[in-house]
């Protein structure tokens, strides 16, 4: 993502509109910002030859690279051309700056009319009452019903999904075929995955491994939810569920895998760096599989052109993995232009001219018609991402992000499970520490 702030261009006033000026937060700390932008939430009736039309300025903010910035500004121009009564006050910045600024705007109830939102933060802003319910926007035929269902928070929709994304599994198709190892198949279960790894080990030379190790919380959360249990964190962190029986079983299997060289030794695994030509577990030729998302698989394909195959994440009785957008357009609950903002966010994912201007700047478009329009221009790396999404969507569970206030717990989880991998403590000892801290944080969240 771009690290510098950009200045947006001022927007010409409509010749027949008289716009009421209202003060709005328009400066960016750290030297960037959008100079000369019109204030937000300004509306007035402008008469012309007996007819009247409401002139509206929508404020909008997003994060991203320079390429995304320029593409989005083109889309805003298109909207203003199609709807001459609407103009925009845009703000755009890098990821870190965005999430530093948004809490300040939220505290003063001055969030822009429209804002880009991320799956990692949307629940937090919904719980604060900062985002408008968008459930009345009809997305039939635009977004897969299962995706919409998984995006709901307490039965309501607070973000219009922008892109197709999913958690999948990449494998070295070329090498597996050369070694006579069956390729992973769609909807494989966890039991099938574990047995596949055992069988593959028997056909591999020393120093190569069929799968990688796991020590992050989300790896186990995929397993726990696939088995029909609740996510580890729910209700904004007020409910904490770490199933001990499943935990001991899951990590017991990986403990056995370490002993039998089915996963790399801890010292080697610690040296891996994804998407590094020499240190990536797959690109280096050490491991034959690893997790990959719709958005990230393109980087791996560039390191291993023509060698990759993809499949959805392992499944259980309840399904498996996730397939949904992780980036959205939301509307501020405090916006004075809610109806126009709702109209705009639907247009953003349905207008073909806008879709052409935006391209892949926010990933593969969520709207199948827009994707079809772009498909002839896509590269192999992009099509692999689409394949992950298509394979995952029918079995997908919701995307679960860490609850607010659980960053310490996420770090502790990895630290304790790394200690297990290095043989420094037992699985049960790790469970007790992780479970204790999680319950403490949930109790704290309940009181807040």
TrEMBL record:
| Classification via SUPFAM superfamilies | Periplasmic binding protein-like II
Q: Spell out the Low complexity composition-biased ranges.
A: 36-48
The record's keywords, sorted A to Z, are:
Signal
PANTHER family under this entry?
ABC TRANSPORTER SUBSTRATE-BINDING PROTEIN YESO-RELATED (PTHR43649:SF11), ARABINOSE-BINDING PROTEIN-RELATED (PTHR43649)
Q: What is the lineage of its organism?
A: Bacteria, Bacillati, Bacillota, Bacilli, Bacillales
How is this protein named in the record? Answer: ABC transporter substrate-binding protein
- In the UniProt record, the signal sequence range is 1-29
Identify the species of origin. Answer: Paenibacillus sp. BIHB 4019
Q: Name one Pfam family in it.
A: SBP_bac_8
């Amino acid at each position: 993502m771009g690290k510098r702030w950009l200045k947006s261009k001022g927007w010409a006033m409509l010749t027949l509109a008289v716009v009421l000026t209202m003060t709005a937060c328009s400066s960016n700390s750290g030297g960037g910002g959008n100079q000369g932008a019109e204030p937000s939430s300004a509306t007035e009736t402008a008469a012309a030859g007996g007819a009247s039309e409401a002139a509206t300025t929508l404020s909008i903010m997003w994060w991203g690279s320079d390429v995304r910035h320029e593409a989005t500004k083109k889309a805003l121009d298109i909207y203003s051309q199609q709807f001459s009564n609407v103009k925009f006050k845009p703000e755009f910045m890098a990821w870190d700056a965005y999430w530093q600024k948004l809490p300040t705007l939220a505290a003063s109830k001055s969030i822009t009319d429209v804002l880009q939102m991320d799956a990692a933060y949307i629940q937090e802003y919904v719980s604060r009452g900062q985002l408008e319910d968008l459930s009345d926007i009809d997305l039939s035929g635009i977004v897969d019903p299962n995706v919409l269902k998984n995006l709901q928070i307490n039965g309501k929709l607070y973000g219009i999904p922008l892109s197709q994304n999913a958690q999948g599994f990449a494998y070295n198709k070329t090498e597996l075929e050369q070694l006579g190892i069956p390729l992973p198949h769609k909807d494989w279960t966890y039991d099938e995955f574990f047995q596949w790894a055992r069988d593959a080990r028997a056909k591999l030379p020393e120093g190569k491994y069929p799968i990688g190790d796991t020590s992050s919380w989300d790896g186990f959360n995929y397993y726990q939810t696939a088995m029909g249990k609740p996510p580890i964190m729910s209700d904004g962190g007020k409910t904490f569920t770490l199933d001990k029986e499943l935990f001991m079983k899951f990590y017991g299997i990986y403990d056995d895998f370490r002993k039998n060289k089915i996963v790399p030794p801890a010292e080697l695994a610690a040296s891996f760096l994804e998407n590094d030509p020499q240190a990536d577990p797959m690109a280096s030729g050490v491991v034959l599989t690893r997790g990959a998302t719709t958005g990230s698989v393109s980087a791996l394909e560039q390191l291993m052109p023509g060698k990759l195959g993809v499949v959805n994440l392992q499944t259980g009785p309840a399904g498996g993995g996730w397939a949904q957008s992780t980036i959205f357009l939301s509307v501020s609950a405090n916006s004075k232009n809610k109806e126009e903002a709702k109209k705009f966010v639907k247009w953003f994912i349905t207008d073909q001219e806008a879709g052409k201007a935006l391209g892949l700047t926010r990933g593969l478009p969520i709207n199948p018609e827009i994707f079809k329009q772009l498909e002839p221009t896509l590269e192999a790396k992009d099509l692999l991402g689409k394949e992950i999404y298509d394979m995952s969507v029918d079995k997908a569970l919701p995307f679960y992000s860490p609850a607010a206030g659980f960053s310490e717990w996420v770090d502790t989880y990895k630290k304790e499970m790394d200690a297990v991998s290095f043989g420094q403590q037992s699985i049960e000892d790790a469970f007790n520490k992780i479970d204790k801290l999680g319950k403490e944080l949930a109790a704290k969240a309940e009181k807040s």
